[in-house]
Design a protein that fits this description.
- This protein has 157 residues and is an alpha+beta fold.
- It has one domain: Aminopeptidase.
- It contains four helices and five strands, in the order E-H-H-E-E-E-H-E-H.
- The protein has a five-stranded mixed beta sheet with strand order 1-2-3-4-5, with helices on both faces.
- Strand 4, helix 3 and strand 5 form a beta-alpha-beta unit.
- The longest helix has 21 residues.
- The relative contact order is 0.14.
Length: 157
């Protein structure tokens, strides 16, 4: 069973140390940001998004636990989009720690999250995925997600 524990300040700092460099790298890889500016841009975005740390309104951060083994397995962040007619959350980030990959946790977390969101009367869950990430794309499709739009780019240099 999966437990969604509100992220502590200490876990939040650990999360930022992991996610900001990864976020910057993804945007460089996608061709959206220049490598020289990527870290600064990523830090700025996260400071703006989490203006009040892990307690920022409409931002939900969880530490993920396997309750049977009593072990921390990953982290998850979603944003409540209050501007929509249908109650929607955007799955901003979700990862399972490397030592727990390939053990079915990804699908189990998504299934558990869906149940939690339905219980909270959330009607839709969305996410963004870099196209080059084929393993995640397959995992999300396997759990019922479908592409809504595709963003294309072409390098002209």
């Amino acid at each position: 069973m999966i437990r969604f524990e509100p992220m502590s300040d200490a876990d939040f700092q650990m999360y930022l140390r992991k996610v900001i460099p990864e976020y910057a790298t993804e945007y460089v890889h996608a061709g959206s940001w220049h490598p020289d500016e990527a870290m600064a841009r990523a830090r700025d975005q996260f400071q703006r998004i989490f203006s009040r740390g892990p307690q920022t309104p409409n931002q939900t951060l969880y530490t993920l636990w396997d309750t049977e083994k009593n072990v921390k397995i990953g982290m998850l962040w979603y944003t409540l989009d209050v501007s929509r007619k249908r109650k929607t959350v955007f799955l901003s980030d979700f990862f399972i720690f490397m030592e727990f990959h390939g053990k079915g946790y990804e699908e189990l977390v998504l299934t558990s999250l869906e149940a939690e969101l339905r219980a909270a009367s959330i009607e839709r869950m969305e996410l963004n995925l870099f196209w080059h990430n084929t393993s995640e794309r397959e995992m999300y499709q396997k759990t019922g997600f479908a592409p809504v739009s595709v963003y294309y780019g072409k390098d002209l240099s």
